[in-house]
């Protein structure tokens, strides 16, 4: 399948043995500890990254702040042109970057390519948007007055991303922020730092080729302490953070304490409702990809199937059969469906979830387990598992970032299923499988799904970039990517202009001198 191997991919992406984790573009400097990145695919060391110290951070931030002054004055379509070139470079490097994503994170090569495609798509979207970014014009209540609103660049945007989408989530944020006139500081997950190096190299090249200053794209690396430098920094008006709800609660409080803005994209507990009118074949494809794709480590992964009792056994049998056909192994081998989870901690969480669901009374119908032996030396390959459970189980209410699927049964009408679907703390993605118009519309209505994403006859994962992406409740309320998500990266200003020789006050107030 491969036209070149991982070593060639790393070379194409400018990744070396030891990489500077603090970068303002082509200037790299780093004095922190060494972070080693091991591949969950084969357990081998991919490369090392030098983490960011406080001094490194301050130097970087100073450069970013200066860069903002220049970048914000460039016309937005010109900023769009730079993002267009960035998208072109991503097209050139798609195979190499897709491979690295697969190798460092463990998702299938196809999904690695898909992730790079999301980056390319958001660049295209951002280019078009760079000629828009429009506010409204309103009618003033006063004669001879004009009122309108405009959007100005915001400043330095902090991006904290997770290991599971180690490149795309950064791109959603940074491509929009750049066309909005902001400069970005990215802290990738310490579980996928090499992906961060590769992306920063691509971005740096583009800014340099355009004679633009250092500091429009910045990278920092390290653990939560480095993240904290960013979240507590008053020079950073917006923090966009993707990750666990636990992390999000800490970030939200740190940012709020200084009245900064945060855009949070946190955990999901996504369900597919399968009604008596569902197309079973489509249900199986959607549910199985949703549950085992990316080894169950998407925030949109399908965790729960809420199945009507009349079709429960049919759906259950079909899904068990499909699981029987899954091939688990090296994700760079395209004949495999499921790769490894990110690390041994993730394996432990997976094992704990399976133990807990049994302890709470659940019934395992597709056995899990950790694979060992040839090809599984990293110890990170697990068997996708299925348990029959009850909606109220603690473990079912909880997001386990692993390929564990819970089957839940409902009876009566679709509103009973919707109630189960909504009775969790998270509110990211949701889906209904039905050919019944009444059920579909009820699911999408005000009495329906309470999630940020609600799909009909599509699974819970694999959203397109054109829509706003994010969710409610413990998912954090943020919206990234398409639609009007760009607005959060800008500051809105309302302008009222008086072109008369009188000064009438609003609300008809008289103030005669
Ligand atoms: C994530 O898991 O953080 O909708 C993002 C999807 C992808 C993005 C997931 N487009 O599954």
TrEMBL record:
UniProt entry tagged with the keyword Mitochondrion: no
MF annotations from Gene Ontology: aldehyde dehydrogenase (NAD+) activity
Active site: 265
InterPro entries the UniProt entry points to: Ald_DH/histidinol_DH, Ald_DH_C, Ald_DH_CS_GLU, Ald_DH_N, Aldehyde_DH_dom, ALDH7A1-like
EC code(s) of this entry: 1.2.1.3
Keywords: NAD, Oxidoreductase
Alphabetized PROSITE patterns for the sequence: ALDEHYDE_DEHYDR_GLU (PS00687)
Listed Gene3D superfamilies: Aldehyde Dehydrogenase, Chain A, domain 1, Aldehyde Dehydrogenase, Chain A, domain 2
The name this protein goes by in its record: aldehyde dehydrogenase (NAD(+))
């Amino acid at each position: 399948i491969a036209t070149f191997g991982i070593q060639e991919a790393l070379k194409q992406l400018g990744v070396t043995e030891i990489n500077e984790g603090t970068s303002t573009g082509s200037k790299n400097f780093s004095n922190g500890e060494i972070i080693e990145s091991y591949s969950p695919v084969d357990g081998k060391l991919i490369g090392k990254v030098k983490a960011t110290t406080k001094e490194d951070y301050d130097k970087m931030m100073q450069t970013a702040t200066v860069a903002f002054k220049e970048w914000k004055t460039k016309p937005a379509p010109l900023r769009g042109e730079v993002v267009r070139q960035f998208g072109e470079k991503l097209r050139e490097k798609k195979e190499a970057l897709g491979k690295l994503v697969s190798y460092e994170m463990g998702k299938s090569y196809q999904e690695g390519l898909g992730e790079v495609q999301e980056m390319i798509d958001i660049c295209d979207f951002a280019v078009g948007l760079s000629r828009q970014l429009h506010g409204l014009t309103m009618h003033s209540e006063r004669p001879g007055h004009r009122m309108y609103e405009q959007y100005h660049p915001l400043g330095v945007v902090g991006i904290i991303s997770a290991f599971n989408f180690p490149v795309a989530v950064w791109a959603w944020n940074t491509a929009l922020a750049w066309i909005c006139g902001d400069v970005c500081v990215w802290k990738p997950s310490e579980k996928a730092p090499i992906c961060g190096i590769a992306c920063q190299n691509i971005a740096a090249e583009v800014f340099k080729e355009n004679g633009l200053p250092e500091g429009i794209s910045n990278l920092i690396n390290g653990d939560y302490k480095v993240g904290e430098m960013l979240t507590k920094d008053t020079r950073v008006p917006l923090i966009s953070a993707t990750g666990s709800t636990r992390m999000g609660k800490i970030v939200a409080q740190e940012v709020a304490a200084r009245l900064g803005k945060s855009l949070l994209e946190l955990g999901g507990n996504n369900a597919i409702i399968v009604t008596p009118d569902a197309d079973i074949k489509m249900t199986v494809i959607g549910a199985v990809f949703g549950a085992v794709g990316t080894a169950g480590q998407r925030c949109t992964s399908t965790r729960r199937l809420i199945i009507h009792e009349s079709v429960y056994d049919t759906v259950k049998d079909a899904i068990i059969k499909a699981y029987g056909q899954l091939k688990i192994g090296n994700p760079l081998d395209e004949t495999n469906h499921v790769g490894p989870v990110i690390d041994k901690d993730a394996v432990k969480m997976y094992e704990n979830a399976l133990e807990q669901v049994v302890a709470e009374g659940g019934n395992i119908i597709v056995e899990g387990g950790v694979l060992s032996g040839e090809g599984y030396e990293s110890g990170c390959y697990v068997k996708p598992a299925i348990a029959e459970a009850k909606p109220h189980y603690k473990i079912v209410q909880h997001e386990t970032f692993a390929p564990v699927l819970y089957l839940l049964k409902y009876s009566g009408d679709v509103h009973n299923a919707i109630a189960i679907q909504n009775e969790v703390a998270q509110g990211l993605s949701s889906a209904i499988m039905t050919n019944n118009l009444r059920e579909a519309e009820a699911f999408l209505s005000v009495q329906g799904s309470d999630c940020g994403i609600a799909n009909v006859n599509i699974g819970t994962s694999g959203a397109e970039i054109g829509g706003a992406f994010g969710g409610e409740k413990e998912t954090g309320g943020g919206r990234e990517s398409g639609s009007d998500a760009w607005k959060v990266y800008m500051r809105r200003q309302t302008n009222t202009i008086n072109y008369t020789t009188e000064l009438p006050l609003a609300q008809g107030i008289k103030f005669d001198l």
